[in-house]
Write a structure and sequence with these properties.
It contains ten helices and 14 strands. It has 375 residues and is an alpha/beta fold. The strands form two sheets. It has a seven-stranded mixed beta sheet with strand order 2-3-1-4-7-6-5. The longest helix has 20 residues, at 105-124. The protein is elongated.
Length: 375
């Protein structure tokens, strides 16, 4: 068994824990922004393919105490790097440190790279390595003087699904959008609406979840080219993901936006994501969209930012208030960086959750409606 580290934005750990349970992993250790588990090498493909809210999947190569640079160098050099890197691997070393005696990121990176090259020289008997083959990102994580040497198996962050061709300003990351849907208790039998849909990310993630389309099914990962990973791992994970797709369910999803460009982008992205027939996108102001009071769910990221004046924001909030003032059975979810939102929105707040969108702190305001009546 191998040690696998899964990183995520703060606040999403519980969601990823549930995802891992659903995937069959039950021996987990959860810390802020990271989940550790025991798994097989082949599970690296399964995790990268299926985790919706995570940032990256790392393979833990070794861990040790490092109070000095000599300790760091010797321990990293002792790792059998030729078993992990090819002679021409295009490897890079990144570092992060927290409350450790070794705090210079540049020095940690430089010394670690020298140690890796020294290990490689013993096997390959050469002084210079071309670094023109597969990409391998090595991460040195120092936390309270405990060094973890890891290999990033994902490559590009897991939020990059591969379907988004374009986006509007300040887009939501795909993995955060998936988390918002998870936290909304949305299911495929209910009507879902986003009145400020932008390039459609929230609704696309919801449709893919409802259809059980794996988030990584349209992209590739760095682990596919690692010399210690069997090519069958990715092929098997993708085959299982394709077989698990639900093609039968009927979805009821609607997105609107006042920007015609945003709507066109949303349609293209939905097509690329394989859910264009599941979502209707319309060029319309939120206040003029016809909605039934039928236990619908709204998940939305209202416009907010320097480009909007206080008057513009108040007008937007006024429209939201007017639109949902009589839709008493709806459950409403808004993500925004505007701290005034709950004071202006005229409904009793059920819950507020602090989240991060690419490093920016945001709040997720949740207004729970009644549960739908059973048939």
């Amino acid at each position: 068994m191998e040690k696998i580290l899964i990183t995520c934005s703060f606040g999403l750990e519980a969601i990823i824990k549930r995802e891992l349970f659903d995937l069959g992993f039950d021996k987990l250790r959860v810390n802020d922004g990271m989940i550790t588990l025991d798994a097989k090498l082949s599970d690296i493909a399964k995790l990268n393919m299926n985790l919706r809210a995570a940032d990256r999947v790392y393979l833990l190569v070794d861990s040790f105490k490092a109070f000095t640079f000599d300790q760091l160098f010797e321990n990293i050099k002792a790792i059998s790097w030729p078993d992990l890197l090819s002679e021409a691997s295009n490897f890079t070393v990144n570092a992060r440190t927290y409350k450790s005696k070794l705090f210079s990121l540049r020095d940690i990176q430089s010394i670690s790279e020298k140690a890796i090259i020294d290990s490689m020289r013993k096997r390959y008997r050469r002084e210079i390595f071309d670094k023109n083959a597969e990409r391998v990102n090595i991460e040195i994580m120092l936390d309270k003087n405990l060094a973890k040497v890891c290999i990033d198996t994902s490559g590009d962050g897991l939020h990059k699904r591969g379907y988004r061709q374009g986006s509007v300003k300040a887009p939501l990351r795909e993995n955060l959008a998936a988390a918002l849907v998870d936290l909304s208790f949305y299911d495929k039998d209910r009507f879902l609406f986003d009145g400020f849909c932008g390039s459609g990310t929230i609704l696309i993630e919801a449709a893919r979840m409802a259809r059980n389309i794996a988030p990584g099914i349209d992209r590739n990962f760095d682990f596919e080219n690692f010399i210690f990973m069997d090519k069958s791992y990715y092929k098997n994970a993708k085959k299982e993901a394709l077989e698990a797709i639900d093609y039968e369910s009927k979805l009821h999803i609607l997105g609107s936006d006042i920007s015609p460009r945003a709507i066109e982008l949303a349609k293209v992205n939905a097509l690329n994501a394989g859910v264009s027939e599941d979502i209707s996108f319309i060029h319309r102001d939120v206040d003029s969209v016809a909605l039934k009071d039928d236990y619908g769910i709204l998940i939305s990221n209202p416009p907010y930012g320097l480009r909007l004046s206080k008057t513009d924001l108040e007008e937007i909030y006024k429209k939201i208030n007017h639109k949902f003032s009589k839709l008493d059975t709806w459950s409403l979810y808004f993500i925004t960086a505007d701290k005034r939102f709950d004071k202006i929105f005229k409904r009793k707040l059920s819950k507020k959750r602090k989240l991060y969108n690419g490093g920016e702190k945001v709040d997720y305001y949740q207004y729970f409606g009644p549960r739908p009546k059973k048939n």
